[in-house]
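Help needed: design a sequence for this.
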């Protein structure tokens, strides 16, 4: 499991659906990417969540657009007239992350597009595991492309790392925000999904995913922890959360019962 590295060559347009102002851009391989910028509001933590969330989803068998490391130099986007975007690009010089652009993909709406109960349960499991607060009816972050379901945008996952407190308790969080999940009403096979997901990914795979976090995303001014020490925090969170999946699965089942489902 490795990520390609490319250099961004052309800024195309901002994607203003989210608060972090991702952009559509072209890289030196000729492909277009939805780029998450390190200079946006949550900085490199959103990039770490995107990397971990996307690779965990892929390892569990979900369709996720290819994730690619994307480098920005000082010349990128110099013709962009919007000052806000110029500031964003200047603050994002260095290594960023992008997802391969799925041209003509349509937003998946569970009230319109049918979803299998087991698939819905697996996606709910994934987002409870990652503590992803951003797959709601207002913003499903799911696409239909070539008649297949794709998962995108995991940058709101791992919300524990924004406070970096109570690190021992974070893996045991029941994740009450699952009540807002777009697919919870359809996730009638959560216990089965839990068994299948636990069989589909191992601590070794999770550890390897964490090892892919670049050092430059883990260095903060005035921070006493080294990149290796921070990786160990992410590693511990994921491995312990997997071992204690019954906590967040039971929470999701309880939230379904509150919906009288």
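Sure. Designed sequence:
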């Amino acid at each position: 499991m490795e990520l390609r590295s490319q250099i961004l060559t052309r800024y195309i347009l901002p994607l203003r659906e989210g608060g972090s102002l991702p952009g559509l851009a072209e890289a030196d391989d000729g492909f277009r990417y939805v780029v998450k910028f390190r200079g946006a509001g949550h900085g490199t933590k959103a990039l770490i969540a995107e990397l971990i969330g996307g690779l965990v989803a892929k390892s569990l068998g979900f369709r996720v657009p290819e994730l690619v490391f994307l480098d920005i130099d000082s010349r990128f986007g110099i013709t962009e007239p919007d000052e806000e975007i110029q500031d964003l690009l200047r603050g994002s010089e260095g290594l960023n992350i992008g997802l391969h652009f799925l041209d003509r993909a349509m937003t998946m709406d569970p009230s319109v597009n049918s979803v299998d109960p087991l698939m819905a349960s697996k996606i709910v499991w994934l987002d409870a595991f990652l503590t992803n607060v951003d797959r709601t009816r207002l913003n499903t972050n799911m696409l239909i492309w070539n008649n297949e379901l794709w998962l995108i945008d995991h940058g709101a996952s791992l919300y524990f790392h924004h406070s970096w407190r109570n690190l021992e308790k974070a893996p045991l969080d029941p994740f009450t925000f699952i009540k807002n999940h777009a697919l919870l009403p359809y996730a009638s096979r959560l216990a089965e999904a839990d068994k299948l997901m636990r069989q589909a990914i191992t601590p070794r795979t999770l550890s390897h995913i964490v090892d892919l976090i670049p050092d430059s995303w883990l260095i903060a001014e005035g921070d006493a922890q080294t990149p290796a020490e921070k990786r160990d925090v992410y590693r511990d969170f994921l491995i312990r959360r997997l071992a204690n999946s019954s906590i967040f699965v039971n929470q999701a089942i309880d939230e379904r019962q509150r919906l009288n489902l």
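The mean pLDDT is 95.
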